[in-house]
Amino acid sequence: MGEIENDRSNLKDEKMVQITLKAIGPSPPSRLTVPSRLKVYDLRKLIAGNDRLPLENLRLILRGNVLLDNKNGDDVFIQLNDGGLHLIFDSLSS
């Protein structure tokens, strides 16, 4: 479903998938089409731009875990599959 991995390789998988986004709060879920494999940071940028949210205050939660942009100095990539994946996002106040 949503597998997180560390990798320094270039993005070569151009397959696109649809994910469901749910904001913490009263707003309804939305869907977003994204590459199946991308950096967590890039996913946060896409969501922030799509929903006009401040990137620095946006965190993503997948299966109860906050997705980090990097780990041990390496970019964190996430592999997404079509359907069945729900990302929760929270726009923290400063």
From TrEMBL:
Organism equals: Ilex paraguariensis
Write down what this protein is called.
Ubiquitin-like domain-containing protein
Ubiquitin-like domain location is 17-79
Gene3D superfamilies (UniProt xref) = Phosphatidylinositol 3-kinase Catalytic Subunit, Chain A, domain 1
